[in-house]
Amino acid sequence: MEIRVIGNDIEGAIKLLKRKIQRDGLMKELKEKRFYEKPSVKTKRKQREAQKRRRKSLKLRNQVRTVSRTT
């Protein structure tokens, strides 16, 4: 990952770096690895995250269908 500072705009470069790190999921991964997580808790968390992704994709799919029907 490379961030270039143009015209001494360090604050802008830091914002860009933070956005890229967040998109890659690096911060979330670091927070998860900060403490030990029991395997049972880890499994439950992964199931919750998968269910959340499924609900989100269904919601988006339904929105696309609604928009295409009205046009």
Order of helices and strands: HHH
Shape: flat
Radius of gyration: 19 Å
Strand coverage percent? under 5%
Note the quaternary state here.
single chain
Give the CA-CA distance, first to last residue. 42 Å
Main sheet makeup: none
Tally of contiguous helical segments: 3
Kindly give the count of domains: 2
User: What is the arithmetic mean of pLDDT?
Assistant: 89
- How many E-type strands? 0
Classification by helices and strands: mainly alpha
- Spans where pLDDT lies below 50 across 5 or more residues: none
Helical residues, percent: over 70%
Question: What labels would you give this structure?
Answer:
71 residues, mainly alpha, 2 domains, 3 helices, flat
Brief summary:
By secondary structure, the protein is mainly alpha-helical. It has helices at 10-24, 26-33, 39-70.
Structural overview:
With 71 residues, this protein is mainly α. It folds into 2 domains: 35 residues, no CATH class; 36 residues. Helix content is 77%, strand content 0%. The chain is built from 3 helices and no strands. The radius of gyration is 19 Å and the shape is flat. The mean pLDDT is 89.
Question: SSE layout and pairings?
Answer:
Blueprint: H1 10-24, H2 26-33, H3 39-70
